[in-house]
């Protein structure tokens, strides 16, 4: 492998190591401050951290794991639907109790409301596909908490990334200009289907993570076991992900992000999921592992055996890129020589 490409891989490993040292110092504080912006969710991330087919236990994470806190979205996104009649009364009672719980949380953590409002603002800007500046964000944060803007922004950014798969990036440092970029190139600005909806890249990345950690092939039962821990159920419409069964067995399959096939020789028929070709093209095992590590407030190398597999995958990708460039250069050089010969007239 060329020296420059090896250097990039080494640099990536050093970044992970440096991040791990920082996390060691911040550890519990980071988990507390970020976690308080969300409602509690069922631990742990165990559905994805067991090797199957006798792969051993080397991959057991070195730190406690948490499932993706999908209830985060209830802190950052408001439901707009309302029911009438008896159901409406029940929903009002539930809303009242939820509001009370929210108020209690807000008293314990005064930044929660500011974080929720900022998440809503950022999602709106993401749908508009327009850059925005720091001043725009400060307008929706109470003056009382504007001196803690960076902390609020960090929480909101974390929520957007782990729930929706959307990254907040600076594009103009002097003016504090920002844009939001999806981690995956899902159609309709990440919502998959046209019309209203929320970005689903976060869910897709979690599914890819489950598949990767289950030996690059996860049964349908394993996928739903994981999703149920996220409070996402087959046949039950989710206010962010829509009808999840259709999303993962039809929409993401048609888009070639997932492969959904019958388990060989299964009777009655059972099904399993693999990465689709677009998933391989748009992301990598290392990027998915980095995503999962961020959710769990740890570093990719904490998932030891999967980290080793991801590193090997990175090396193979680099080698494939180098080979492709070499072949392309050879073809271009050959074509140039042929053209030169054809233009020569003694």
Chain-wise SSE layout:
Blueprint: H1 3-35, H2 72-76, H3 85-108, H4 111-128, E1 132-133, H5 134-138, H6 149-164, E2 166-172, E3 177-182, H7 201-213, E4 218-219, H8 220-229, H9 244-254, E5 258-262, E6 271-275, H10 277-282, H11 285-295, H12 304-343
Antiparallel strand pairs: 1-3, 2-3, 4-6, 5-6
Helix pairs in contact: 4-6, 7-11
Region (Disordered): 1-74
Domain MAGE: 111-310
Organism: Camelus ferus (Wild bactrian camel)
Give the helices and strands as they follow along the chain: HHHHEHHEEHEHHEEHHH
Strand line-up of the largest beta sheet: 1-3-2
Mean pLDDT rating: 76
Q: What does the overall shape look like?
A: globular
Task: Describe the model.
This protein has 12 helices and 6 strands. The protein is mostly helical and 346 residues long. Strands 1-3-2 form a 3-stranded antiparallel sheet. Strands 4-6-5 form a 3-stranded antiparallel sheet. A hairpin with an 8-residue loop joins strand 5 (258-262) and strand 6. It is globular, with a radius of gyration of 23 Å. The two termini are 44 Å apart. Mean pLDDT is 76; it is low at 21-75 and 78-107. InterPro entries: MAGE, MAGE_N, MAGE_WH1, MAGE_WH2, MHD_dom. Residues 1-17, 50-65 have a biased composition (Basic residues). Residues 111-310 form the MAGE domain.
Entry summary:
The chain has helices at residues 3-35, 72-76, 85-108, 111-128, 134-138, 149-164, 201-213, 220-229, 244-254, 277-282, 285-295, 304-343, and strands at residues 132-133, 166-172, 177-182, 218-219, 258-262, 271-275. The chain is mainly alpha-helical.
């Amino acid at each position: 492998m060329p020296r420059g490409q090896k250097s990039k891989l080494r640099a990536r490993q050093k970044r992970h190591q440096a991040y791990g040292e920082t996390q060691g110092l911040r550890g519990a504080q980071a988990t507390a401050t970020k976690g308080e912006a969300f409602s509690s969710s069922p631990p742990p991330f165990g559905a994805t951290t067991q090797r199957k087919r006798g792969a051993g236990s080397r991959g057991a994470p070195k730190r406690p794991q948490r499932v993706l806190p999908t209830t985060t979205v209830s802190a950052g996104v408001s439901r707009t639907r309302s029911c009438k009649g008896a159901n409406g009364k029940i929903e009002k009672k539930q809303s009242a109790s939820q509001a009370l719980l929210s108020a209690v949380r807000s008293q314990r953590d005064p930044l929660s409301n500011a974080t929720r409002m900022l998440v809503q603002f950022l999602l709106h800007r993401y749908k508009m596909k327009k850059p925005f500046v720091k001043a725009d964000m400060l307008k929706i944060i109470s003056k009382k908490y504007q001196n803690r803007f960076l902390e609020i922004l960090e929480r909101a950014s974390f929520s957007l990334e782990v729930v929706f798969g959307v990254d907040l990036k600076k594009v103009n440092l002097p003016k504090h200009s920002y844009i939001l970029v999806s981690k995956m190139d899902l159609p309709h600005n990440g919502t998959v289907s046209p019309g209203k909806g929320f970005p689903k890249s976060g869910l897709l990345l979690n599914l890819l993570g489950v598949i990767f950690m289950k030996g690059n092939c996860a049964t349908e039962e394993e996928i739903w076991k994981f999703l149920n821990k996220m409070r996402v159920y087959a046949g039950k419409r989710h206010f962010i992900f829509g009808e999840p069964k259709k999303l993962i067995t039809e929409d993401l399959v048609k888009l070639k992000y997932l492969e959904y096939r019958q388990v060989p020789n299964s009777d009655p028929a059972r099904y399993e999921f693999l990465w689709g070709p677009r998933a391989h093209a748009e992301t990598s095992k290392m990027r998915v592992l980095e995503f999962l590590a961020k959710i769990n407030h740890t570093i990719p190398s904490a998932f030891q055996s999967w980290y080793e597999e991801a590193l090997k995958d990175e090396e193979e990708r680099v080698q494939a890129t180098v080979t492709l460039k070499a072949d392309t250069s050879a073809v271009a050089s050959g074509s140039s020589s042929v053209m030169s010969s054809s233009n020569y007239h003694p």
